[in-house]
Amino acid sequence: QLSCLLKMVTLHGIPKDLDSYPTDLLLFLSPSDYAATGSCSQFFINIGKANVDVLPREAPQRQQLLLEALACLKIPGTQINQENAEILGRLVCDLGGEYIRSSGGSLLKDLSQCGSFLPDQEEAIRDVISSGNTTFGPPAAWSAFTLSELSGLIPVLDHSILQQIPK
Fold it and tell me: Membrane-crossing residues (predicted)?
C-alpha cells in the first residue's frame, strides 16, 4: 500500500512538502529522489523515525537504505558515534556485529529498541556488555534504571551477564 501511495504522490515529481507525509512512505523512496526537497542526512533522520519493519529485514530495499545511510553520513569504518546512531534511528537494528563491537556502548540504548537480533548481533551485544566498557558500566554496577534503559536487550543477555547484575 505504501509503495502504491508513493507512486501516486510522486506521479508529477517529488512534492516540495514531502516531509509532511508519513515517514513510512519514505522507506520506498531513494535519497537521490528526496534530494530535490532536502539533504540526504535529513532524509535519513526522517527514515530513522519510520517503522523500518514495514520492510522485511532481508529485503533488498532495507539493506540498500542502510548502505546509503552509511555513505550519506560519511561513516568510514564500522564505528558509529551517538550522533549518527540517532540519525540512523531504527536502521541501527540492521547493523552487523562488527559495527556493534567497534561502536562499543554507543549503540546499546538504540539497539534496545529493536524487536529481534541476528545471532552475530546478539554475540556482539554480549561482548560489548561483558567488556563493561560502556556508559552503563559493567553489569555488576547496573541499577533498575539501567535495566529499564536496556530492557530490549535483556533477552540477549546470557547467564554469565545476568549473574553479575545486582538483585
Answer: none
